Amino acid sequence: MSASEYFQQVIDSAVMSVDVIAAALEVAAASATQSLLGGGTLYCCAVGCDRSLAQFVADRLMYPVDVDRPALPALALTGVASVAPEDAPWRDARALARAGDTVLCIDSSPDGHVLQHGIAAMAGRDVQFLGLTHTGIKDVDSAGKYTIIAVPGDARSRLLGLQALTLNCLCHLIEQQLFGET
Questions:
Q1: Domain boundaries, the chain
Q2: How many alpha carbons lie under 13 Å from residue 156 in its C-beta half-sphere?
């Protein structure tokens, strides 16, 4: 497969994902915006290759890209080597997250174990919990208590690209809701 064919497949996947992602993305942006307006912080939690996406979101909100605006309180929690990888960000999130904060879990793993650990770790906390995973993960939120953005993807590499695009859109929507058209 040529580079242009692969790129076209990725773009096609993004286009096909719009209807699947849009509603949850809007809810997630509104939730995070309300948290930020209330003085909350956005904690972006991830392990493995998803750590770079968590850092991207935190940096995108802390350091404006397109418009001159104040920094927004966002922090990537990606854990340390001395803790089991799937538990690492949750230990930090439990220690730092306070009522009114938002915790974003980014999980591209095939089985959704990081998202499941995140939901368990933050259960009973008065925080907004947002999850970014893929459509292959079922029943992680059967009670409907959390906002889960499920990105369609058949290969993890393609899924990561779509998740990056989704997270960039999330940041844009947050900025738009806080500062107007950006």
A1: 3-179
A2: 10
What H or E segment, with its residue span, contains residue 112? none
For residue 116, report the phi and psi dihedrals to the nearest 5 degrees.
-65, -40
- Round to whole Å and give the CA distance between 122 and 140: 13
Of the candidates 164, 122, 180, the one whose C-alpha atom is nearest the C-alpha of residue 147 is 122
Helices (DSSP H) in 38-112: which residue ranges? 51-62, 88-96
Measured CA to CA, the distance from residue 40 to residue 128 in angstroms comes to: 10
Residue 33 has which token pair? 């915006």
Residue 152 CA to residue 134 CA, distance in Å, equals 5
The architecture CATH gives domain 3-179? 3-Layer(aba) Sandwich (3.40)
Reduced DSSP (H G I as helix, E B as strand, rest coil) percent helix, strand, coil of the chain, to 5: 50, 15, 35
CA 173 to CA 81: how far, in whole Å?
A: 34
Q: What is the pLDDT of residues 13-49, one digit of tens each?
A: 888 888 888 999 999 999 999 999 999 999 999 988 8
87-124 pLDDT, tens digit each: 778 889 999 999 999 999 999 988 888 888 898 999 88
